[in-house]
Amino acid sequence: MKKNMTKTNRMVKIAMLSAIAAVIMYLEFPLLPTFPFLKADLSDIPALIGAFSLGPAAGVIIEAFKVVLKLIIKGTSSGFVGD
Questions:
Q1: Which of 4, 10, 45, 70 shows the smallest number of beta carbons within 10 Å?
Q2: Is 43 exposed, middle or buried (0-12, 13-18, 19+ CB in 10 A)?
Q3: Block means of pLDDT (10 residues each) for the chain, length 83 residues?
Q4: Cα separation of 48 and 67, whole Å?
Q5: Which pLDDT value is given to residue 69?
Q6: In whole angstroms, what is the distance from residue 54 CA to residue 57 CA?
Q7: Cα–Cα distance between 56 and 71 in angstroms, integer?
Q8: 77 vs 70: CA distance, rounded Å
Q9: In the prediction, which pLDDT does 2 show?
Q10: 23 and 73 in contact (C-beta within 8 Å)?
Q11: Per residue, what are the HEC states of the chain?
């Protein structure tokens, strides 16, 4: 019984961190006002937290879910280059 709870707990943590990363991804601001194309991406912070607390595979899964959610919601403007 405890093993099932552990797997469910891990899956829920990965899903929550992925959702948080997807929401934070839309908060963009330029690093320098003179160069508006240089933007800070703070959405990697939940993936780093997940990678350190749940392992590197979880960090990769969180990043993959974040990118898939972005493609579903916003689409791509670069033809999948740089996503």
A1: 4
A2: buried
A3: 76 93 86 83 91 93 89 76 65
A4: 15
A5: 86
A6: 8
A7: 23
A8: 11
A9: 66
A10: no
A11: CHHHHHHHHHHHHHHHHHHHHHHHCCCCEEEECCEEEEEECCCHHHHHHHHHHHCHHHHHHHHHHHHHHHHHHCCCCCCCCCC
Record the pTM.
Answer: 0.80
Q: How far apart are CA 57 and CA 62, in angstroms?
A: 9
- Amino acid type, 29: F
Instruction: Tell me the one-letter amino acid at 44.
Output: D
Q: What are phi and psi of 13, to 5 degrees?
A: -65, -40
Residue 78: predicted pLDDT: 72
